[in-house]
Amino acid sequence: MAILKNLKCIIADFLFLICGKEAKDKILKDIYRYLKWNRKIGSRKSSIIRLNFLLLSKPEFRSVFYFRTKRHKLLTACSGILLPRAKSVEISGDIDGGLFVSHYHSVICPEKTGKNFRVGPGAAIFGDNGAPTFGDNVYVASNSAVIGNIRIGSNVIIGAGSVVTHDLDANAVYVGNPVRCVKKIDADEKLLDEIM
After folding, report:
1. Residue 144 shares a structural domain with residue 178
2. Same domain, 77 and 98
3. Which of 34, 35, 115, 171 is most enclosed, with most CB atoms within 10 A?
4. CATH number for the domain that contains residue 120
5. What backbone phi and psi angles, to 5 degrees, belong to 16?
6. Helices vs strands, H then E, count in the chain
7. pLDDT number for residue 30
8. Average pLDDT for runs of 10 along the chain of length 196
């Protein structure tokens, strides 16, 4: 049975092998982020085994994977037949490695993000006249909206249900509608490590 399941991944594995160095590096960072807390599979050496585990068990990761391999349209479409992506996750923009989509039902359309970008379920990130730009190590929690041509600094946590329509400084926790800073994050603090 396990062999049959892994056969579903054969086109995706081929896509991973041919996708190019930049896309492959980003996918490897995405895999690391998804498996950070999974000790069972996280310790295995083979990136293909890790990739297959995520493709078979996490539809939201499939959406991230197909976003990264979209340059190969035919192979991505064929792989999507065997391993469908989460249809309720929309991803576009220039997104660096380490993207983690926590669940379904998210619209992730930033202009640009730094590394280690995490998005909770139901988050909406978009803009009509320019989309948001994010620094490194940003977490947008569930049901939050980040809207417009704005800048979000590095090391930022945006709490659940927040609405962001203006620039946010780095190293802070923001919550509410309208969003406001509730805590500054020190460089020594472990808060970001625990959440990210």
Report:
1. yes
2. no
3. 34
4. 2.160.10.10
5. -60, -40
6. 8, 15
7. 95
8. 72 92 96 80 74 92 94 89 88 96 90 96 94 97 97 96 97 96 83 68
Range of the domain at 153: 89-195
Residues with Cβ < 8 Å from 63, sequence gap 6 or more? 85, 86, 89, 91, 101
Is 139 in the same domain as 156? yes
Q: pLDDT value at position 44?
A: 58
Q: Residue with structure tokens 């293909």? A: 48
43/103 same-domain check: no
Residue 161 in tokens: 């249900």
* Amino acid in the structure at residue 20: G
Alpha-helical regions (H) of the chain:
2-7, 10-18, 21-35, 39-42, 47-57, 59-68, 73-82, 191-195
State the DSSP code for 44.
-
Taking every pair of C-alpha atoms in the chain, what is the biggest distance, in angstroms? 51
Give the span between the Cα atoms of 144 and 123, in whole angstroms. Answer: 5
Q: Of the candidates 64, 82, 100, which is a domain's last residue?
A: 82
In this structure, are residues 164 and 146 in contact, taking their beta carbons and an 8 Å threshold? yes
Residues 64 and 95 in one domain: no
